[in-house]
Amino acid sequence: MKWATTVAKGILGHRPASLQVAALCLRVRDGKTQVLLITSRDTGRWVLPKGWPMRGRSLSGAAKQEAWEEAGARGKIDKEPIGDFRYDKILDSGLAVPTDVVVFLLRVEQLEKTYPEVGQRKRKWFAPKEAASLVAEEGLQKILRNL
């Protein structure tokens, strides 16, 4: 009977969260760590480059690709995540989907002037504590404050 109740809850919308990957792009300038944030296309709020896992790529590889496409950032990405956070992704239909984001550190070696989403977003370097104050997600704020 307990199993049937669990299955029924699953059917009624208690499904696991979706999964995205993000690149926390960082560099050191004059001995100070800086984090690259970009604006989201829909609301213009500050976020990390992130997206869905990609067929044929590791999770870190997909995060590295998102950093290039959304921010023009190229560099070395860690294979192991530095953290994760959850947020509600609002779909075009208006439905909010709980989404877990696994975050990988990308050490930026080059910032390209042209990249796929260059005209769709702004990008800017921030000190980690300032970046933490600009992002909405509490879990991401914690990751940034711990840099």
Automatic annotation (TrEMBL):
Which stretches make up the Nudix hydrolase domain?
Answer: 18-147
One GO cellular component from the entry?
cytoplasm
Q: Enumerate the cofactors the protein uses.
A: Mg(2+)
Keyword tags: Hydrolase, Magnesium, Metal-binding
One GO biological-process annotation of the entry reads: diadenosine pentaphosphate catabolic process
Q: Which PROSITE patterns match?
A: NUDIX
According to the UniProt entry, its GO molecular function terms are: bis(5'-adenosyl)-hexaphosphatase activity; bis(5'-adenosyl)-pentaphosphatase activity; diphosphoinositol-polyphosphate diphosphatase activity; endopolyphosphatase activity; metal ion binding
Recorded superkingdom: Bacteria
Q: Would you indicate the residue range of the signal peptide?
A: none
UniProt cross-references to PANTHER family, sorted A to Z: DIPHOSPHOINOSITOL POLYPHOSPHATE PHOSPHOHYDROLASE, DIPHOSPHOINOSITOL-POLYPHOSPHATE DIPHOSPHATASE
Q: What is this protein called?
A: Nudix hydrolase domain-containing protein
Q: Which organism is it from?
A: Thioclava pacifica DSM 10166
